[in-house]
Amino acid sequence: MKKISRRNFLLASGVVTVGAALAACGGGSSSSTAASSAAPASSAAASAPAAAEGKVLNIWCWNDEFQSRFNDYYPEVKEIAADKSTTTLKDGTTVKWTINANENNNYQNKLDEALLNQDSAADDDKIDIFLIEADYALKYVDSDYVLDVKKDIGLTDSDLAGQYQYTKDIVSVDGSQRGTTWQATPGLFAYRRSIAKDVLGTDDPAEVQTYLSDWDKFNDVAAKAAAKGYKMLSGFDDAYRTFSNNVSAPWVTGTTVTVDENLMKWVDQTKEYTDKGYNNKSSLWDSQWASDQGPTGKVFGFFYSTWGINFTLLGNSLATPTAEGGKEEVGNGIYGDYAVCEGPQPYYWGGTWICGAAGSDNLETIKDVMLKLTCDEAIMKQITMDTQDYTNNEKAMNEIASSDYKSDFLGGQNHIALFAEAATKIDMSNAGPYDQGLNESFQNAFKDYFTGNVEEDAAKANFETAIKEKYPELTDVVWPA
Length: 481
Known about the structure:
The chain starts with 5 loop residues before the first helix and ends with a strand. The relative contact order is 0.16. The longest helix is centred in the middle third of the chain and has 16 residues, at 261-276. By secondary structure, it is an alpha+beta fold. Mean pLDDT is 90; it is low at 1-8 and 13-49. Strands 2-3-4-1-5-13 form a six-stranded mixed sheet. It has helices at 6-13, 43-47, 65-73, 106-116, 137-141, 157-160, 165-169, 193-200, 205-211, 215-227, 240-244, 261-276, 287-292, 306-317, 363-375, 377-387, 394-401, 415-423, 435-450, 456-470, and strands at 56-61, 77-80, 86-89, 94-99, 129-133, 172-173, 176-177, 187-192, 252-253, 256-258, 301-305, 338-341, 352-356, 476-478. It has two domains: 56-184 and 350-392, D-Maltodextrin-Binding Protein, domain 2 (3-Layer(aba) Sandwich), CATH 3.40.190.10; 186-348 and 427-478, Periplasmic binding protein-like II (D-Maltodextrin-Binding Protein, domain 2), CATH 3.40.190.10. It comes from Faecalibacterium prausnitzii.
């Protein structure tokens, strides 16, 4: 398979510069005739003689989500340190957790530096497992720093057969799968039942969907909601992934960036919503956005994928947070007042993949972790039943979808049934290694346009400037006619 050479990985990581500093979410599918001898080659793991397993398993991630899944569901866990910095397995292996927050590319920057020094690190300091997200997955899987989950680690097609195909496609290059995940992350539209009743006369998900089944209808409901004193969306970014996941081609071909027509539809809609007062001018993750999801919020709904409902929306809905003694139950804030429907277009948002690092001396342990936490049907089903997260086993999810499972948070709705339907529609064919950086730059450039600080042409020029600074190797930008 083609791999990113050591030099290109350095460029993609922002470790060296050519004319300007590069951001860490670069990369690409550029090939090299031979990777630098300093770069660890994944094929070495397959050809090397069997060695004793290391007694330290180093896992790198950006938050505690996978750590909690590991500690709660990996059967070999024996003991967890009080500060959660280490986990001890039944065979005596010490799992060391290195968690670096994502902000300002911090996680990727530190991970890249560690991977570039992997071959010279002491055995107990080498990275064994690291986590990646969909937006920058190709940067890592199309490199020499990640192991093939079948050829190098030993998983089989049979082991992986129950997983959604897109979760395998996104971490595969030239037929080599180089990561695996316990999640599938189809998206839906989460709406306030009480607001839907006031605006549409119903809160039934099937009926609400008829009003939101395409963007024209969605915009009509936005006008009706505004007439009742509600915002349709919280801010500028809420609908972005629903548009960006439905583009007709990848962002980059060769060295040319092509802005898809669908992204300009998002620009037009968001400008209209801002000008007409259909949103609250918030940005994802800011305090206004979080508040709009809570008891005082007057926003019709939010685009969320699987993890967002149980990790973010539920917490924001509570008047008294669980950290302050509040309970996840009806009566605490607006718990029970949300429901979900398909919305105007299928999309996905996020997802976390487990990668085995080249140079690891814990291949058998990595294999077992991947088997138990991404391939075991019973464990996958239990995670969903316990946490409402949507897991990567089609049979298990279909069983829950057709059962009497209900989410109290969603007013008794079996949202797994909608996620199961949406998951089969996910298309990763237009994903690329520049997605995170270009999507972020595009959204940032147009916020000044939405708020009236610059004209549209200036926003376009600002986008071009931003990406030329971030990715000097990208030479041209093509806009829709």
